Amino acid sequence: MAKSDYFPEFYHREVSFCKVHGHKSKSVVESILLKNRISYFIDMHNESWLSRVFSAEKGKDRTVFIFRINEADIEVASELLNEFAPNQLTKLN
Questions:
Q1: CA nearest neighbour of 84 among 39, 41, 29
Q2: CATH code assigned at 50
Q3: What is the greatest pairwise CA distance in the chain?
Q4: Residue 2 and residue 11: Cα distance in Å, rounded?
Q5: pLDDT tens column, 4-45
Q6: What is the pTM of this model?
């Protein structure tokens, strides 16, 4: 039987990379990551009911998307997203 090599330093090392607000921003980050062959997972959070009621920005899409990527791709993804608008992207790592 063939021996399979396992390199634990880069497998199953998913980390929270960045947070964006709104579907439009999510699409932009998604397309940048896809074009550069960086795999990701999106964790979606909706604002709480009270936040939506008392928010000053009525009618604005405030869904929060957290992008999780492999730890090995953090440097490359950071360079790619440096040009993205800083007020729409919050880096978590």
A1: 29
A2: 3.30.70
A3: 64
A4: 20
A5: 666 555 556 888 998 988 888 899 999 999 999 999 999 988
A6: 0.72
